[in-house]
Design brief:
single chain, cell projection, 4 helices, mainly alpha, 2 strands
Length: about 140
């Protein structure tokens, strides 16, 4: 009997990758808080989670192949999260849409969520190691 890491770890591996990517985007927003005309961006975790859930449920898509030489794209949905522009609550005079306090709050929440996913993955690995050792 083999252990499938994909089923054992669930979606938490992708969640860690997403959280790391979102941390970069939020840090970039904070770094450009004083840049004129900079537009704040963010990633939507709910849409990425829904996409991953649909793929896990067996939701596939089909493409029309008009030539036999075309490459089949079965199950190759985009794994990259789409960056979206944040709608400002009160845009500044220089058209910068970064709200520093909101960015710091989002960054802190993202860090807590990253730590939670990391802790859960760590406990799953400890459980797998325990099962392999027969403890």
């Amino acid at each position: 009997m083999s252990i499938s890491f994909a089923s054992a770890l669930g979606i938490h591996q992708q969640a860690l990758g997403f959280r790391a990517q979102r941390a970069e985007v939020l840090a970039n927003n904070m770094a450009n808080a004083d840049t004129p005309n900079y537009k704040a961006r963010d990633l939507d975790f709910a849409s990425v989670l829904a996409e991953q859930n649909a793929k896990a449920q067996g939701g596939t898509f089909a493409l029309n192949r008009t030539n036999a030489h075309h490459i089949s794209a079965e199950g190759m949905a985009t794994a990259e999260a789409e960056l979206k522009y944040r709608i400002p609550m009160s845009p500044s005079l220089d058209q910068n849409t970064v709200d520093t306090q909101l960015e710091q709050s989002n960054y802190a929440q993202n860090a807590v969520d990253f730590q939670a996913s990391f802790t859960l993955l760590n406990s799953k690995f400890k459980g797998l190691i325990s099962a392999l050792r027969g403890d």
